[in-house]
Amino acid sequence: MSRLVMKFGGTSVADLERIRRVARLVGREVEAGHQVAVVVSAMAGKTNELVAWTDGAGAAGQGLPTSDDEYDVVVASGEQVTAGLLAMTLRNMGVRARSWLGWQIPIIADDAHGRSRIEDIPPEKLGGAIDSGEVAVVAGFQGVTRDGRLATLGRGGSDTSAVAVAAALNAERCDIYTDVDGVYTTDPRIEAKAKKLAKVSYEEMLEMASLGAKVLQTRSVELAMAYHVPVRVLSSFVEPGKAAADGGESAGTIVCDEEEIVEKRIVSGVAYSRDEAKISLFGLPDHPGVSSEIFGALADANVNVDMIVQSHSRRADTANMEFTVGKRDAARAMEIVRQVQQKIGFQGATVDEDVAKVSVIGVGMRSHAGVAKTMFGALAEKGVNIQVISTSEIKISVLIDAAYTELAVRALHAAYGLDKL
Fold it and tell me: C-alpha distances in angstroms, 228 versus 152, 159, 231, 253?
């Protein structure tokens, strides 16, 4: 008998009727002979409600430690409710099941409350439970620190929980059930001709997740790649028995090693992100150490910087620089830039939040020339101006005016023939 991990997100368990549908999907896998562990998120909207309550409770008083640990206690309760309800529903169907919280397994995490990373999952308890024929319903998004405190894994952390559990159990596969039926070449809401991919490599999925695609959390893809856990993305909004076994409409998308994909596409997808802000610095002293001062200060403040470009200015011995940060970090980044300005001296700084990042991703870029030419040509034909460019081995990203986001996505999708896959 093979081990299988199934994960259901918030929209999949939004109410009791949807939890019953999830239970039927789990029951079908049990009937097929799998030993099953299920990882669940909180009901849709519940985490936001809990976070709002913690905001309302206010910050700790002067001289007291921050309440990040108590924040985790509150927000982790949403998954506990879902796990208990699903276990009860499975029992009502005649399926042996019990819920497991992070501290009971245990899922060992570090003490960076609110954004913890999983350090270890001893497989003995959970493995023993599912080997006995009992469905283990695991509360996602949560772990326990080595000193016994609850810790949460950040937004989308239940994906990471599921992949980590699958790795610990040496599961055959980790099925991530969502409100979409797989990974598409781009957002179907923007491009009606977007196609569902049967398979996508870990590296491509990692780039897609980090560049704006919301299907999987980035950390979960990193874990899957590190431990070679095959991940299948599919919809929970189908009745058991209607899901196709091979290549059908409900078969989803397999995220796997590149070697398992026979036909490697030059470009597999177009991703976009509107959560971008561009910061421009003018008249920087053009000598060693200036960039270190700027980006060191931003790193110390936990501001993540993405695209960076530097050019000579009109004045001798000075340079201009542009870089991007998340829109939510823009105000804080500008404060830090102003502080650095007083130290190293430069002419000025501006911030532009009306920008978007559009990217093309594909493992085939490694062995094919002309990918950039096609991208830049397609954008130029539509009159889209490129502000900043960044590349890696399997992706090219450009920063453009936000008003042209949808036009750029559709143009690039057509330029690489993704509507004909």
Answer: 24, 15, 9, 16
> Bridge partners of 8?
40, 177
Separation of alpha carbons 335 and 421, rounded Å: 47
Instruction: List, as one string, the DSSP characters of 175-243.
Output: EEEESSSS-BSS-TTT-TT--B-SEEEHHHHHHHHHTT--SS-HHHHHHHHHHT--EEEEES-S-TT-S
pLDDT of 258-292, one tens digit each?
888 877 788 999 999 999 999 999 999 988 889 99
- Cα 135 to its chain centre, rounded Å, is 27
Enter the tokens of residue 56: 């309302």
- The predicted model gives 139-145 an average pLDDT of 96
106: Cα within 13 Å, side-chain hemisphere: 14
Give residue 62's Cα distance to chain centre. 35
Output the six-digit token pair for 14.
């939004």
Q: Is-cis flag, bond preceding 106, omega within 30? A: yes
316 against 18, higher pLDDT: 18
Say whether 116 sits in a helix, a strand or coil. coil
- Range in 72-81, 182-191, 378-387 the model is least confident about: 182-191
What's the pLDDT score for residue 298? 94
- Share of residues in the chain with pLDDT > 70 (%): 96
Q: Residue 272: phi, psi to the nearest 5?
A: -145, 155
- Alpha helices per DSSP H over 254-310: 290-300
What mean pLDDT is predicted for residues 158-163?
96
The DSSP code sequence of 138-174 is EETTEEE-TTS-EEE--TTHHHHHHHHHHHHHT-SEE
Q: Describe the chain by its helix, strand, coil percentages, rounded to 5.
A: 40, 25, 35
Structure tokens that stand for 95 in this block: 């399926």
Structure confidence by residue, pLDDT tens digits, 304-327: 999 999 888 777 788 999 999 999
Contact 170, 3 (CB under 8 A): yes
Q: Would you say 236 and 178 are in contact if contact means Cβ atoms under 8 Å apart?
A: yes
Interstrand relation of 142-144 and 199-201 (parallel, antiparallel or unpaired): unpaired
Distances (CA, A) of 127 to 119, 133, 160, 250, 402: 18, 10, 18, 29, 49
| The two three-digit tokens of residue 295, written as one number | 């980006």
CB 176 within 8 A of CB 7: yes
